[in-house]
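Ticket closed. Logging final result for Small nuclear ribonucleoprotein Sm D3.
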Amino acid sequence: MPVKLLQEAEGHVVTMELKNGDVYCGNLVESEDNWNCQLESVIATTKKRKTCNLSQLFVRGRKVRFVIVPSMLKHAPMFINSDTKIGGTQDYLLQTIRLLHLTRYSQRMVADQNKLYE
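Final structure:
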């Protein structure tokens, strides 16, 4: 996932899975180029499915396995096709396919999380 997409997600609710299996879902306040992220109003789910609420959380970028961003970001300006951009149409299509795949995966993750809270 491009760093620009992560930065576009600032101010939105994202879900992060860390390499140790913990999952955090919260409002992305700030992200850095090295994927360090600050979240607010976080619901933390451990590997053993225990949950807790955190007011703030800082995640070190090298610990992140993946990030699920809102599907509305598929319309972000970075995905607008422009022949003046380096790479042109082929790069645009590859990025769009990756984003759609990530969106489908995120929908499954959200459905799984909703089952946990029922």
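Strands lie at 13-18, 23-31, 37-45, 51-59, 64-68. No further action required.
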